[in-house]
Amino acid sequence: MARPAYEVRYARAVRLLDLLAIGASAGLYRFWGSPAPWRGAHLDLGLATLIVGAAVLVAAGTWDAENLGQGTFEFNRLFLGFVWLGILIALVGMGLKWNWLRPYAFGVVPIAFAFATLGRLALRHRLARRRAAGSCMRNVLAVGSRDAVAELIERTRRSTKSGLEVTGVCLPGGTPGVGTQINDVPVLGDMSCVVELVHRFGYHVVAVAHAPGWSSEKLHQLSWDLEGSGTSVVVDPGLMDIGGSRLRVDTLDGAPVLRLVEPKFAGLPKLIKFATDIVGALVLLALTAPLMIGIMMTIKVQGGPVFYRHQRIGKGGTPFTMLKFRTMVLGAEQMRAAIVEHDHGAGPLFKVVNDPRVTRLGRFLRKHSLDELPQLFNVLSGSMSLVGPRPPLPTEVAGYDRKAQRRLLVKPGMTGLWQVSGRSDLCWEDTKRLDCRYVENWTPLLDVVILWKTLGAVIRGSGAY
Question: C or N terminus of the chain, fewer CB within 10 Å?
């Protein structure tokens, strides 16, 4: 089965950008740091670095098509490839006593890695936009029970960045027919005709979910039957909201088993998060101080208090006062009853599109989340974090079930998965699901990713009102 055309083009673009990154970094060294005696030979050195770099990146699996376009594995491989390249150049320099190669190992290679990373991020951003528009998707044949397949379909629709689109279903005892569908996806047959359907319709992926009677032996046979076809087999283990950081692969009598480890909120990870919060809050306060002063003066001129104080619940169920810039007219609470029928909020949150109580300045502040800048003081005081679950209301916490209580294991955040996944447009269940996913799968790297995505969400201003 041939790979989709967009994957072939994407892989070519990745290879080209990686090579351009190495060439550009070598060129920068040529003009800024190359020792005078070696300027004449610099072109040959640059070409050699380019050729060796391409060979090392291939050996490291950096250009493997199945690793491109999603997940952190692509960047892990990219980092590993450039580390190997730097080590190789350093060893050659030491062995031949060519000291002039040191700048290549410790200067050219790191800069090339930075350029290559930026190039791949740009490609991913472009690919994500095209997938959000419905293109560059891989056709998926979902296999499993009715409930498991239905959930898989919903998950792929929520996460368009994965590039997976379920267009056919196989059920135990399933029989194709007019009107036989699951979430608008047609049922094409039962579990015995998976391979036939793959070859008939050219599916790129077979996604195997939970199904009664579906044994490891049948999964082996399916993978064997699809070998050489170019079709990937994806297995859903049923741990829907548990990330790879908490999964370990062990063996039991020679067979692989998944071991689930507890989420870590102590030790070095906790120290890293604390330091990131303090340093990040101080840096952001320094950068935004003129803007915050301007906002404070503008609100004060309009009359009334500058800050809006609201009680929220923090880590361990401890209440605290959350700060925000005031974005509503005076007496907004007394006007609430008149617009309660227009409430579009998530769960206990009260949200109204085009709320008449919000001032003109307030709409701008809310759109770009500038009203939340005072929460940096909450971060410095230790009641909030830069990244975490959404700060819950006391009435909300009173109705928490056991799963929702997990949100109180960490500090609430100024931003989080809910902020970068839709903001006020999210339904209540999705908001809770994302908060719990963050708690269960937290790592320092996840915070970095969320902070990066928050920048784009704030600039776009979508989903906020």
Answer: N
Neighbours of 399 (CB within 10 A): 9
Q: Which residues of the chain have pLDDT under 70?
A: 1-2, 30-44, 100, 174-179, 237-264, 331-354, 422-428, 460-465
Q: Is the dihedral of CA 183, 189, 191, 194 positive or negative?
A: negative
Question: What predicted TM-score, i.e. pTM, was given to this entire model?
Answer: 0.65
Structural domains in the chain, CATH included, are 5-132 (no CATH), 138-238 (3.40.50.720), 268-460 (no CATH)
What pLDDT, in 10s, does the model give residues 30-84? 665 555 444 555 556 777 888 888 899 988 888 887 778 777 778 888 998 999 9
| Concatenated DSSP letters of 1-63 | -PPPHHHHHHHHHHHHHHHHHHHHHHHHHHHHT--GGGGGGHHHHHHHHHHHHHHHHHHTTTT
Q: Give CA torsion, residues 336, 341, 343, 344, to 10 deg.
A: -170
Cα–Cα distance, 316 to 433 (Å, whole number): 19
